[in-house]
Every structure is written in structure tokens, then in C-alpha cells.
Design goal:
heterotrimer; A alpha/beta (486); B mainly alpha (100); C alpha+beta (494); A: 486 residues; alpha/beta; Amidase signature (AS) enzymes; eleven-stranded mixed sheet; 11 strands; C: 494 residues; 16 helices; elongated
Chain lengths: 486, 100, 494
């Protein structure tokens, strides 16, 4: 078994003690990536030149006493995040070669804090998928078993952290795309309250659902990265002006006295037995730690998947209209404009993206808008209200993250069966709630994730509950087979 | 609830997706199945409910009318697939493409 | 409401009545674009130089509302007596076109900023009231240049996104207009208001003020709805008039021959003087409107609306009526002097400086107007300025200088400016009004113009002017001509 890879905090400490330099950390990261990439294919671009410049800068800053915990820390970014001058593809052929003229706000904040960008990670095309099999550039392997999926859409971001190449990465979550791969890869993955982290520079999938969030090996690391990227951005009109509650000071507060709801509907059939057992164990652990577990009901959960699969495709059909071959990305040159549009988009988009564009266009089209889109937005209100009502009685909710552990590649070729992966993660996106997945055990050596959900803007509370659980268990210390050797 | 061939053609046209016949047939089948699953939404009573267009509670988010420097034509065109050095260039436009 | 149906005695004879509704798109005079901070002043810039990732529609960008654009739209809505919505939002209008970078335009669909207003104007002595359906806010598209300048034959087109994202206000008028004349007048009045309140520069040629029309015919005296035809590409008031006249005639011709009209879009072809079918409206775009998820809605409370209302200047019609009553001006004169806010402000400044109302009106409308047109410099922009003109006219009014001198000085000082009073003193341009001095010159004129005197005594009144002219010449044009006239008449007993 490989040695437990370090956490971000541990590396930060080593950097400050001059036990290691940013450049050395970077070289280690690249060496490990190089050795694992043939099996993982977690990266689409390695940003070596940028990383080296940033590492050198970090060196200077550390010498000057820069207190930022991210200074000199290598980080990987999901390829839906724009980095100025670096190829950013969103996992799609239609953006092959695209170099953004600007950098996403969340990324800018990481860079300002001294983080070092090792590369852009592989993901499902335009963040649409739950297995990373929809990437136009090939699938990603799960470090626990490379024949299995890492989850999606932030598969690459989860895999590289699980493999131990880096201690942290950024992903994006629209229906579970951070939490589900985190669960399948045995790492921590957090989706902030909608509006907590700026979406400026995140290649949009579904505007009212997307959020950027960190994937790490520990809850404390996750909270650390979150605190750097969170906060109002005037370039994102949906970003909240409410002050960010720093999750770090209260991280150790524990769960004694907290009421934690267990929604019946998230434990329905479809949940693998092994997953159910691990999650029930985790819930008992929380009780042992002093939380009061309460059964609750969210009856409209039944409709969450259908609601999501109208709203997300509808918004994406509009967000992806700009990929038309005119100003950037791939173009299939044809004498007529119409042919150019048709061919470029037919060749540039993969099957899942086309499916969702078609579905979304249909849901918004004349004659169907009321029955589909409008109806879905109303059911969304019902779902959000149900959560609000439940949160009058409990402080947080606990549930599985994914109904299953990592499945073999190619196993879920039927779109509907793939959509079911997100049935327990989607509701938090619909209601804009903060939610995390933390490792809570294994089934046949495959990781299981525990999901914790809190009311809007109670991101700190999510970290607190997750941290209490993590501290009382050893799951986070178990390294994947691909982790760096001692 | 079926996604007929006409539906597929019409929607593909609206979305500017030049699907071939095989793709159209496959999508028709898949989308019919998905729409079927989605149709359960009609069971929910939403007669007294308003839509959630925005998940947050924000209103009146706007900025002062202050201009800032542009990025310049070079950067604007740097990713252009086809350009004459100053413009983005596209092909012949049919009547039916033109909008209001 | 009656409107002169001057067109087409043919149309009237056939028993048809035109039903015209106009849609105006007006660019707002903000400093920055609607959803990004690029300059809204894109004229004269190199193609695609006035852009940023947001208005280029790059992946990952987000819009941010320009508050001033909202204020300007509310200001316009108030000037048009519209109801301001207390809750309003933006929507996406989805379609594909190269000048629309995001593949959707952020506009307003079902909850616009304002609705239900009206615009009243005079036409042939009658008052016309045209309803305003709504005034809403959206973003402009980029521009395209088609190879060979003819879209239908171009094999390629060039896209310039400098204009993409400029704030655009859409003003939809009710189909209350009953003639091309009424339509033209409506546009002139609407444009005047927009320029007056400072939200738009009214430039049709440049395209900052654009107009499309919906035209149909119905049997006179009925309320039925005929087939609506959209007419576009009218780039001047004259073009609007000509295009609508043509279209009304065309439709009447088709109907009179027993044919049916297609519900379509037709473009005005200026060079050929006709409208040409562009596309059948049956192939209508399905815009798939839905609320813009990237922009929270707007709630405009009373305080906001009142603050905008307080920024509203006196509107042209109200100002015209006030000029009539306050300064005793004729309706036509009041109308000319209030044609633009700049003119009206200049006039009131003149009167406030002590220049008599009538004198100021005459000079501004005749002498100054001529110079302003010839030199392409308005009074306010001129070197002389309103202040200088006020001094000049005050000297004239006091009799210090005479009319001809005043005119010469105006021409001389208009561009470069100067101190009229000082110049009059320095050059001794003061009017000669001394009776004894003038009497002597009158004697001299009589003595040296026997023929003129004879003509005058013979009843030829015009001969008097020759005698006056003689005195004027002798005084280098400075003689007080009224006095000279009076003295001559007394002396010659006629």
C-alpha cells in the first residue's frame, strides 16, 4: 500500500519550513502525473510554462513571508475554467485550440493566493455526464480501478487528487459533477451555495445550477480552498453580496447538539446495498459523535430528476448556441453559412451534448414552453420550499452521494441509466444548497461517499459536520493504488 | 409522448445541428424515452406556485455607466477560424437565415 | 381622431384605410455598453477594436446591467406617459446569426420596463394620439458587411462586433396611424422627444435611430384586421414616407384586384422606389424566450422612478406651448424655436439677458439660422455664443447700432467671437442718430439727387430709398435709417 499522500495543509507547512520548495513540489507533481497519465488520462493540457513561472513567484513570496496557505501549492483546474492564453476545451472538439483572452475569477483568486496551476483536467464534454465517458478526448480512469469510471463530469479533477498527484483541484457541479466523482474516487468534493463562488469564466452549462468547487483529500483542505475562491464578484450578477462566513475558525466545533435529517426518499430502491450499509455506518458514527439523527421526508425528490432534465438542457441549449464556428473554436468551413453552422455543430458536439441541446430546445420551443420549462421551474419552487420547511426542523441533511460505487466503463450506455447517477445530488443544485461528499468507506475496495447538505449560505456548517466525521474516521488516510510510493 | 421524425427535424433545424439520418433516428428514440420519464412532472400540482427563475433572492444588480478599456482587435480576432485581418468572415447567407 | 389620408386618393377611393404601427429601435447615449464596460461610442473605430470577451460572446462570460441604460429607458417611458413596471426582468431571445455572438439577444419579453403610453402630435390642424404599447430595453447586435454590398448575391460576409452590446431601447407603437404622413410625423415627434430628453442622438443615417413598420389595410370605417406586412430598411424620414406610400398603394392594388396579401417582411429598396419581399412570415423564428438566468430581476420603486422623473426636462410640446403664452410667439415661430432643446435654451437665455422676445425670435430664426446652416455651427457652439449675440442684440435694441451694422457684426464675429460693445466703440460703428448731423446730410442728399427728388414728388415712393441710400453711404452705413426716412419726408413734405 502506498504511503498516505500529503494534504494541502501539510505541504504548506513543509514549504514554510523550507523542507521543500515550490519548484520541487511542482516537479514531483509532474513526475507523478507522467507516470499515471497512461492509465488515468486525467489531464487534457499540462501548463508547464505557466506553472514554473508561478512556482518561481511563489518562492519569492514565501521568502517574503506570504501567509497564504495556497502559496506554492500545485493545483489542477477542470477544463471548463478559462485560463488566459491556455487551451481551454470544456472536453469538447468544438473548442479545440481555443485560448481564452481572460481568466476565470475563481482561478484569478487562486493565482493571487500563490497557487501553481499544473494543468487542465479532463471532463465530460461541457460538464454533461456522470462518468467522464463523454469527453471528446477519451475517458478518465478511476485510480482505484482504472477499468472503472471516476464519475463525472469532474472526473479528471477527482482522479488526479485521488491518485495523489496534487492535493487539490477545482471542478464544477451542476447536478452532482463534483460530489459524485469525489464519492467514486474517495476524495472530498464540495459544491458551494449557489451564488457563493463567481461563475465568471466558468464555461456555462446550466446557468441557474452551475457552481465551481474544490476537490481535496481532506475537509480542512477543501474549506481552505473554498475560502480563497468564495465571495462576491461584480462580474457575476448572480454572485451573492452576503459576507462569506470563513469555515476555518469553527471547523472543529463538532456535531454535538446538531439535528441531522435523514431523508427517506434518498434511501429508496436503486441504492446499492453496499452503499446503503456504509452510509448507515456513517450515520451511526455521527450519532456517536453527538448529532441527533431525525427521519425527514422530501416527497418531491421523486420529481427532481425530471425537473433537472428539463431545466439544465433548456439552459444549456441556449448557452451552447455561441459555439457556431464564427469567432473561435472549430469551424467546418462551407460555402454557405447555414451549412457551416450545421456541420460545425454536428461534428463538434458529442452525442450527449446533442441529446441535451435537442431536449432543451424542444422544452423551450413554441407550444411546449408551458408544459415543460415553465412547469419544471414551478416544481423547482416546490422542491426548494420543501427543503426550507425541513430545515426549520433540522440543521443539516445526510445521505449517500451516489446510488452506486464506480461502475465499469461502457456499463451505462443507456442515457437514462446514466442520469440516475445524479438522483441524490441533483436536488441540492435545484435548491441552490451547499453540499459535500466525504469518503465513508469501501465496497469491494471501491470508495463510497457520504453527502452532507445544509441550508443556503450555511457552507461553514457543511464543513463542520464533514470535518467532525472525517476526524473520527480513517477513510481519508487510505491511499489509492496509484498514490506515490513511500 | 413521442419525439416524432418531424419533431426531430424541426428541433435539429432550430438548434443548427446537421444530424444524419441514423443520428436522427437514434435521438428520436432516446428523446422519446427521456420525455416519457419527464412526463411525471405533470403529476405535481403547481396551480398556486410561481416559477423559480432565479434561485437567489437578488434584485437590482447593476453597475455604474463607466467605460473600461477594450481588449483590442488583435485579441478579439486571435481565436478566429477565418478572418481577413480585421473581421470575422462567414460564408453566403440565405434569405431564410436572416432575422428581423 | 381624424388623420388626413392624403396618400392615395386611390386608396381612399377604393374604400381602404391604412393601419400603420411603428417599431423604433433607439441606441442609448450611455458611455458604456448594455452588459459590459466597453465604450458605447463605437463610431469610427477599427473593426472589432471596441470589444471585450463579454460582448464577443466568449465561453464563460456573464452580463452586468448598465444602470444608466435602465434610467434612460424609464426616462423615455415617462416622457411617453407610460406605466413603469414595478417588477421587470430580462429574457433571452434565441436565434442564430453571425452578428449575434451569444446566439441569443438579451432582451425583454413578457415583463418589459414599461407599457401603455401615448404620443400626441398635430397633423394638418388635427390632434393625433398614437398609443405606445411598450418601451423596453435590450442589446444591439454587431454589424455585417456583405461582399459586393448585396446580401442576396454575396458569397461571404464580414462581421464587426464593435456595435454588439450597445444599449438599445425598443419603442413599440400601437397601430393607430392612418396614413404615411401620420407615420412620418409620429417619427419626427418621437425622435425630437428622444433627443430632447438626452437619451438618443436621433441619427437615422448612422443607424442610432431605426424604424420598422407594420402596414395593413382595412375597409374604411371597420375595425377588422387586414394582413399585416412588415416593412424594413427605411433609413430616413423621407424613405419612411415613400416606403409607406408605396406599400399602401401596393396592398390596395392587390386587394382591389381580388388577390390575397402574404403576411411577410418586405424591404424598402430606395434606389428602385419599391418594397421587395424578403421572407414569408410563416417561416417565423421560434425565439424560445425564457427568463435570463444570469441576471436578477429589477424592482423599481417609487423613489427610483421619481428620481428619474426629476431628471426629465420640459418636453418639446409643453415648451412650445409655453413659448407661445410666455413670449407671445406665433405657433409656427414657437415650434421653430423649440425644435431642439439647444435652440430653445439659447432663445430663453437671450430673453433672460434682456433681449425683447420678438427681436430675439426674428434674429434667431432668420439671421442666426442662416449662418448656422451655412457654417454648420450652431449658436451655442459658435465663438460668439448666446452671450455675444445677446450683447449685440441689446446694442441694436438700444439704437446704438442699426440693423445692417448688427448683421455685419454677427457675420464677422460668429465663428471667432469677440466683444460687440468694445468693437462698436473702437471702430466708431455707433449709429448716427444726431438729428442736426443727419439733417445736414439729408440736405446734401437732396441737393445731389435732383432726379430722385423729382421722381419722389412724381409719386414714385421707391425713390425715397435712393435718397436714404445716399445718406447711408455718406455715413458708411451708420445712419439711423428710421430717422433719415423721417427727416426726408418732413423736408420733402410727403
Amino acid at each position: 500500500m502506498s504511503e498516505t499522500p500529503s494534504t494541502l495543509r501539510q505541504l504548506a507547512s513543509q514549504l514554510r519550513q523550507r523542507l521543500v520548495s515550490p519548484r520541487e513540489l511542482l516537479d514531483d507533481a509532474y513526475a507523478h502525473i507522467e507516470s499515471t497519465e497512461p492509465r488515468l488520462h486525467a489531464y487534457l493540457t499540462l501548463t508547464r510554462e505557466l506553472a514554473e513561472r508561478q512556482a518561481d513567484d511563489a518562492e519569492r513570496r514565501l521568502r517574503d513571508g506570504d501567509p497564504s496557505p495556497l502559496c506554492g501549492i500545485p493545483i489542477a483546474l477542470k477544463d471548463v475554467l478559462c485560463v488566459e492564453g491556455s487551451e481551454t476545451t470544456a472536453g469538447s472538439k468544438i473548442l479545440a485550440g481555443y485560448r481564452p483572452p481572460y481568466t476565470a475569477t475563481a482561478v484569478e483568486r487562486l493565482f493571487a493566493a500563490g497557487a501553481v496551476c499544473v494543468g487542465k483536467t479532463n471532463c465530460d464534454e461541457f460538464a454533461m455526464g456522470s462518468s467522464n465517458e463523454n469527453s471528446a478526448y477519451g475517458p478518465v480512469g478511476n485510480p482505484w480501478d482504472v477499468e472503472r469510471v471516476p464519475g463525472g463530469s469532474s472526473g479528471g479533477s477527482a482522479a488526479t487528487v485521488a491518485a495523489g498527484s496534487v492535493t487539490c483541484s477545482l471542478g464544477s457541479d451542476t447536478g452532482g459533477s463534483i460530489r459524485q466523482p469525489a464519492a467514486l474516487c474517495g476524495v472530498v468534493g464540495f459544491k458551494p451555495t449557489y451564488g457563493r463562488v463567481s461563475r465568471y469564466g466558468l464555461i456555462a452549462f446550466a446557468s441557474s445550477l452551475d457552481q465551481i468547487g474544490p476537490l481535496t483529500r481532506s475537509v480542512e483542505d477543501c474549506a481552505t480552498v473554498f475560502s480563497v475562491i468564495a465571495g462576491h464578484d461584480e462580474r457575476d450578477s448572480t454572485s451573492s453580496t452576503a459576507p462569506v462566513e470563513d469555515p476555518l475558525p469553527g471547523l472543529d466545533a463538532g456535531v454535538r447538539g446538531l439535528r441531522v435529517g435523514v431523508p427517506d426518499e434518498y434511501f429508496a430502491q436503486g441504492l446499492e446495498q453496499g452503499v446503503r450499509s456504509r452510509v448507515e455506518d456513517a450515520m451511526r458514527e455521527l450519532e456517536r459523535l453527538g448529532a441527533e439523527l431525525v427521519r425527514v421526508s422530501l416527497p418531491s425528490s421523486d420529481y427532481a430528476l425530471a425537473t433537472y432534465y428539463i431545466i439544465a438542457p433548456a439552459e444549456c441549449s441556449s448557452n451552447l448556441a455561441r459555439y457556431d464556428g464564427v469567432r473561435f473554436g472549430m469551424r467546418e468551413q462551407r460555402p454557405s453559412l447555414l451549412d457551416m453552422y450545421m456541420t460545425t455543430r454536428d461534428h463538434g458536439f458529442g452525442p450527449e451534448v446533442k441529446r441535451r441541446i435537442m431536449l432543451g430546445t424542444y422544452a423551450l420551443s413554441s407550444g411546449y414552453y408551458d408544459a415543460y420549462y415553465r412547469k419544471a421551474q414551478k416544481v423547482r419552487t416546490v422542491i426548494a420550499r420543501e427543503f426550507a420547511r425541513v430545515f426549520e426542523d433540522v440543521d443539516a441533511l445526510v445521505a449517500p452521494t451516489s446510488p452506486s460505487v464506480a461502475f465499469p466503463m461502457g456499463d451505462r450506455s443507456d442515457p437514462l441509466s446514466m442520469y440516475l447517477c445524479d438522483v441524490i445530488t441533483i436536488p441540492a443544485n435545484l435548491a441552490g444548497l451547499p453540499a459535500i461528499s466525504v469518503p465513508c468507506g469501501f465496497v469491494d475496495d471501491l470508495p463510497v461517499g457520504l453527502q452532507i447538505i445544509a441550508p443556503r449560505f450555511q457552507d461553514a456548517r457543511v464543513f463542520r459536520v464533514a470535518h467532525a466525521y472525517e476526524r473520527a474516521t480513517e477513510w481519508h488516510r487510505v491511499a489509492s493504488p496509484l498514490a506515490p510510493a513511500a | 409522448m413521442t419525439f416524432s421524425n418531424e419533431d426531430v427535424d424541426h428541433v435539429a433545424q432550430l438548434a443548427r445541428l446537421g444530424l444524419d439520418d441514423d443520428e436522427k433516428r437514434r435521438l428520436g428514440r432516446e428523446l422519446t424515452a427521456i420525455l416519457d420519464a419527464i412526463s411525471k412532472l405533470q403529476e405535481v400540482d403547481t396551480s398556486e406556485i410561481s416559477e423559480t427563475a432565479q434561485v437567489g433572492e437578488l434584485i437590482n444588480v447593476w453597475r455604474d455607466d463607466v467605460p473600461a478599456p477594450c481588449i483590442g482587435a488583435d485579441l478579439a480576432l486571435v481565436n478566429a477560424p477565418v478572418t481577413d485581418g480585421a473581421h470575422f468572415v462567414v460564408g453566403a447567407i440565405q434569405e431564410s437565415e436572416r432575422d428581423t | 381622431m381624424t388623420q388626413a389620408v392624403a396618400t392615395g386618393s386611390a386608396t381612399a377611393a377604393r374604400g381602404f384605410e391604412p393601419v400603420i404601427g411603428l417599431e423604433v429601435h433607439a441606441q442609448l447615449l450611455t458611455r458604456s455598453k448594455m452588459f459590459c464596460a466597453c465604450s458605447a461610442d463605437y463610431a469610427g473605430k477599427q473593426p472589432n477594436d471596441n470589444t471585450c470577451p463579454v460582448c464577443l460572446g466568449h465561453p464563460g462570460v456573464l452580463p452586468v446591467i448598465n444602470r444608466r441604460a435602465v434610467e434612460f429607458t424609464v426616462r423615455t417611458a415617462l416622457a411617453l406617459d407610460c406605466e413603469i413596471a414595478s417588477f421587470t426582468k430580462f429574457d433571452r431571445k434565441n436565434y442564430f446569426y453571425p452578428d449575434l455572438p451569444k446566439g441569443y439577444q438579451i432582451s425583454q419579453y413578457d415583463l418589459p420596463l414599461s407599457r401603455d403610453g401615448h404620443l400626441e402630435f398635430q397633423l394638418d390642424g388635427a390632434l393625433v394620439r398614437c398609443g405606445i404599447t411598450r418601451v423596453h430595453l435590450e442589446e444591439d447586435t454587431g454589424t455585417m458587411h456583405h461582399e459586393g454590398d448585396v446580401l442576396q448575391r454575396a458569397t461571404s460576409s464580414l462581421v464587426d462586433l464593435n456595435r454588439s452590446g450597445v444599449p438599445l431601447m425598443e419603442i413599440v407603437g400601437e397601430p393607430d396611424l392612418r396614413s404615411p404622413e401620420a407615420a412620418r410625423e409620429y417619427l419626427i415627434r418621437l425622435r425630437q422627444i428622444l433627443v430632447y430628453i438626452g437619451v438618443n442622438d436621433g441619427n437615422l443615417e448612422k443607424g442610432s435611430f431605426r424604424c420598422d413598420a407594420n402596414v395593413s389595410l382595412r375597409p374604411a370605417g371597420t375595425e377588422s384586421l387586414g394582413t399585416k406586412v412588415e416593412v424594413k430598411n427605411m433609413n430616413s424620414f423621407r424613405a419612411v414616407h415613400r416606403a409607406l406610400e408605396y406599400e399602401v398603394q401596393r396592398q390596395a392594388g392587390v386587394l382591389a384586384a381580388g388577390g390575397a396579401l402574404a403576411q411577410e417582411t418586405r424591404g424598402w429598396v430606395e434606389a428602385e422606389g419599391r418594397t421587395v419581399s424578403q421572407r414569408s412570415k410563416e417561416y417565423a423564428h421560434d425565439y424560445r424566450y425564457f427568463p435570463e438566468p444570469d441576471l436578477p430581476p429589477l424592482q423599481l420603486d417609487e423613489a427610483f422612478v421619481e428620481r428619474v422623473r426629476s431628471e426629465l426636462p420640459e418636453l418639446p410640446e409643453a415648451r412650445r406651448l409655453r413659448f407661445q403664452s410666455q413670449y407671445g410667439l406665433k405657433p409656427y415661430d414657437a415650434s421653430v424655436l423649440t425644435a431642439t432643446r439647444e435652440e430653445a435654451d439659447a432663445y430663453e437665455e437671450l430673453v433672460a439677458a434682456g433681449v425683447p422676445a420678438k427681436l430675439a425670435a426674428n434674429w434667431q430664426m432668420v439671421e442666426v439660422a442662416a449662418l448656422a446652416n451655412e457654417l454648420r455651427v450652431t449658436l451655442a457652439q459658435s465663438g460668439l455664443g448666446v452671450k455675444g449675440l445677446a450683447e449685440l442684440l441689446t446694442l441694436l435694441d438700444a439704437g446704438t447700432i442699426n440693423g445692417p451694422t448688427a448683421k455685419e457684426l454677427l457675420a464677422e464675429l460668429y465663428l471667432g467671437g469677440g466683444d460687440p460693445g468694445a468693437i462698436v466703440s473702437a471702430r466708431g460703428l455707433a449709429q448716427v442718430s444726431d438729428e442736426s448731423e443727419l439733417a445736414a446730410l439729408v440736405e446734401a442728399a437732396i441737393a445731389e439727387n435732383e432726379a430722385a427728388v423729382a421722381d419722389l414728388r412724381a409719386g414714385k415712393e421707391k425713390a425715397l430709398a435712393r435718397l436714404v441710400g445716399h445718406v447711408m453711404k455718406a455715413t458708411q452705413g451708420k445712419a439711423n435709417s428710421q430717422l433719415v426716412n423721417k427727416l426726408l419726408r418732413e423736408r420733402l413734405g410727403g
